[in-house]
UniProtKB/TrEMBL annotation:
Signal peptide segment: 1-24
Stretches of the chain forming a coiled coil according to its record: none
Limits of the GP-PDE domain: 41-343
Matching PANTHER family: GLYCEROPHOSPHODIESTER PHOSPHODIESTERASE, GLYCEROPHOSPHORYL DIESTER PHOSPHODIESTERASE
GO molecular function: phosphoric diester hydrolase activity
Pfam families: GDPD (PF03009)
InterPro entries: GP_PDE_dom, PLC-like_Pdiesterase_TIM-brl
PROSITE patterns given in the database record: GP_PDE (PS51704), PIPLC_X_DOMAIN (PS50007)
Annotated GO biological process: lipid metabolic process
Keywords attached to this entry: Signal
Entry protein name: Glycerophosphodiester phosphodiesterase
């Protein structure tokens, strides 16, 4: 009961902060939804480019900035003490992090691996080494030994330290709509992330994406100047042909739109869709069993509706080329170096690389 009262107080305080009006410049600049983001093809480094450096670390985001990307793609979870940390998994995985020592002697919650982020404090989470473990499926992945799970504020500060004034951040709120008890409440995600972006003065260089479309709808109310991106893995979350609305769509029943992703996303004012590129999601256009999900028709429909299309996560060059031929506005990839090569071959303007700040 005490935790619920504290959470309610935190959210109430954040909501008071969010009551300030959105910046007029942002509002007027976005009469056409599709103008948000980089004005060139959008190379997004997935979790900082996890094919090259251990994911979601200061090292991975630094490497991406130095290589040259348009956008840093990152995930946010919320801790028990209401801190926004940058990590993908709602439950700490031993593949990504390893325990070192408890936050205090006799901590009954130790070890922390296997626990939900929402049930741990920042002090507990920061004891873990989340940079040493590499994954065999990413043979080029470099470790960052001893790396701590970063705060959202630290990644924002990193971008500022690099003076990367043209780099966007695409922040995913990792609300688990299908099992809401496994993550912090939706309202907490929305309020905390919006406050971070607002206080950092980055309303003009951040987009918010989520598989939980209800979080996007709420973000549009809390901070209308932030572009929102409707993530989907296709039929699994859209749930066409099933009774009622999918828990992932914020009350929208996809069958009311004939199963049409574009029409459903447009109905609540999404600025972009970010669909899985095809099936299986780790497949390639050159695979015999590969089935594309993103098509030229989907892209054209989205553009007619004023939305960008930025599929995820594409790691091979033939599939990258296929999607560019389809007309997508950007690509989220674990291998920004490969996408840079594709862009260069096609004569696209390459994003600038930034020098590491002097220590």
């Amino acid at each position: 009961m005490k935790k619920k009262k504290i959470l309610a107080a935190v959210i109430a305080a954040l909501m008071m902060c969010s009551a300030q009006p959105a910046l007029a410049d942002n509002e007027s600049d976005r009469s056409d939804n599709r103008i948000f983001g980089p004005k060139t093809f959008d190379l997004q480094a997935h979790r900082g480019g996890m094919g090259l450096t251990v994911e979601s670390t200061i090292a991975s985001f630094s490497h991406a900035l130095e290589m040259g990307v348009n956008t840093l793609e990152l995930d946010v979870q919320i801790t028990e003490d209401h801190q926004a940390v940058v990590t993908h998994d709602r439950k700490i995985s031993g593949r990504n992090c390893k325990d070192t020592s408890p936050a205090f002697a006799g901590d009954p919650e130790y070890p922390y691996v296997g626990k939900y982020i929402k049930d741990l404090t920042l002090a507990q989470i920061r004891t873990m080494d989340c940079g040493t473990n590499t994954k065999p499926e990413y043979p080029e992945q470099q470790p960052s030994p001893g790396a701590k799970m970063p705060l959202l504020s630290e990644v924002i500060d990193l971008v500022k330290q690099y003076k990367a004034k043209k780099v966007w951040m695409n922040i995913e709120t990792k609300v688990e709509a299908g099992a809401s008890w496994e993550t912090a409440p939706r309202e907490e995600f929305v309020q905390i992330v919006a406050q971070h972006v607002r206080e950092a003065g980055l309303l003009d260089r951040v987009s918010i994406q989520s598989f939980d479309w209800g979080a996007l709808m709420r973000m549009k109310e809390v901070e209308p100047s932030l572009p929102v991106v409707a993530l989907t893995n296709g039929p699994q979350f859209l749930q066409p042909g099933q009774p009622g609305a999918s828990p992932w769509l914020g009350g929208i029943d996809i069958d009311d739109f004939g199963g049409d992703l574009v029409a459903a996303a447009k109905s609540f004012g999404a600025d972009a869709i970010s669909p899985v590129h095809g099936f299986p999601q780790n497949g390639k256009i050159t695979d015999e069993n590969y089935v594309p999900y993103v098509t030229k028709d989907m892209v054209e429909d989205a553009h007619k509706s004023g939305m960008k299309v930025i599929p995820w996560s594409i790691n091979d060059m033939p599939t990258m080329n296929k999607l560019i031929d389809d007309g997508v506005d950007g690509i989220i990839t674990d291998y920004p170096d490969r996408l840079r090569e594709v862009m260069e071959e096609r004569g696209f303007k390459l994003p600038k690389g930034y020098k590491a700040p002097k220590s």
